[in-house]
Amino acid sequence: PILERSAAGYANFTLDNEYDGIVRRVPLFSRVNGKLIPILGLEMLRVATGQNLLIKANAAGVEGVIVAKTLLPTDGYGRMWVRYSEFSNQNYIPAVDVLDGSVDPNRIAGKLALVGTSATGLKDLRSSPVNSIIPGVEVHAQMIQTILSGQHLFRGDLMRAVEWLGLAVVGVMLIVGLPLAGAR
Q: What is the pTM of this model?
């Protein structure tokens, strides 16, 4: 209750892996007890900008989420593709350095800071398309960086039809071409 009274917002930090265990997309909202709860990075941006979050949807599903007058493109399920960069320890400050005061306060002042763990036993290690092992908090940091840089990855609804059409064309070419070529 003490933390809830002082919290500026509520967020979810659960991430979904793809079928191969790699986190490529982040669900921007989760339904918890009938309420939509934003993912941590999105809620941090909402609180930092003082703006509301808007979900833009059509008959096909979610088109995107608007935060701070910026449209974040999503897939039809409201998941955002994260543009990952190489993992760097330069962006990390050990908590002990903050607690004992050995970190220059200007290094953190006015910035969005995430607190997380990287210990193997806590089971918050993830895989990204760029790095095989990163702390889960790094996924949230990369998501925020993607949003702030404006370098959004987007896979349009039309791409699924293009992929199926390409698969059908290659299939027909194989069905027709292999008997004509014969065994060699």
A: 0.80
16 closest CA partner among 34, 39, 32:
39
Distance of alpha carbon 43 from the chain centroid: 13
Spacing of C-alpha 148 from chain mean position = 13
- Count the neighbouring beta carbons within 10 Å of the beta carbon of residue 68: 15
Closest CA to 23 of 135, 102, 100: 135
Q: Burial level of 45, CB count in 10 A (0-12/13-18/19+)?
A: buried
- The span from the CA of 179 to the CA of 182, in Å, is 5
**Is 37:30 a contact under the CB 8 Å cutoff?**
yes
Mean predicted confidence (pLDDT) in 152-167: 85
